[in-house]
Amino acid sequence: MNNKKEAISYLFFGVLTTVINIVCYAILTKIMNMDYKLATTFSWILAVIFAFITNKLYVFKSNKTNLLLVVREFTVFTFFRLLSYFLDILTMIVCVEYLTIDDFIAKIAANILVIVFNYFASKYVVFKKMKS
Predict the structure, then answer these.
(1) Band of the pLDDT at 88, cuts 50, 70, 90?
(2) pLDDT tens, position by position, 22-36
(3) pTM above threshold 0.85
(4) What is the C-alpha separation between 85 and 63, in angstroms, rounded?
(5) Which of 19, 40, 95, 129 could be a cystine partner for 101, CB 3.0 to 4.6 Å?
(6) Taking a C-beta distance cutoff of 8 angstroms, is the pair 72, 98 a contact?
(7) Exposed, middle or buried by CB within 10 Å (0-12, 13-18, 19+), for 84?
(8) What is the domain count for the chain?
């Protein structure tokens, strides 16, 4: 039951993170006319900060408060999110430049791949439970 609750919580905050990512992307590209690659980067940074806080506190309920342990969690989290950023940007480039898919549709597709990757990285590496 705990895994089901965790997965639902992750999905809920993953959707919010994705909304932040996509809304930020849309504002930057559609309103501010920013290049889609740069907009992907800025929206990714904002989404990562939001995701770390919500994943740590509400999804995986990491109770590590020691500054060194929190910095380690954030560093490992950011490393895996950086990997997912490359998955995101590569998906965007392939979809937009080679498959000529609309950039907004490509952004949604890329985010689906990213959500799945990030869940497994967070659950099994970043916020894994310490054995007593």
Answers:
(1) confident
(2) 899 999 999 999 998
(3) no
(4) 27
(5) 95
(6) no
(7) buried
(8) 1
Let me know if residue 9 belongs to a domain. yes
Cα–Cα distance, 89 to 96 (Å, whole number)? 10
- What one-letter code names the amino acid at 122? S
> Is the distance from CB of 73 to CB of 128 less than 8 angstroms?
no
Give me 78's structure tokens: 């950011």
| Contact (CB, 8 A) for 126 and 80 | yes
Host H or E run for residue 65: none
Q: Range of 75's domain?
A: 2-126
Q: Is 81 inside any structural domain?
A: yes
Alpha helices in 27-129 (DSSP H): 36-54, 67-93, 103-121
Return the exposure string of 56-66: e unless at least 16 CB atoms fall within 10 Å of the residue's CB, then b. Answer: beebbebeeee
Domain membership of residue 132 (yes or no) is: no
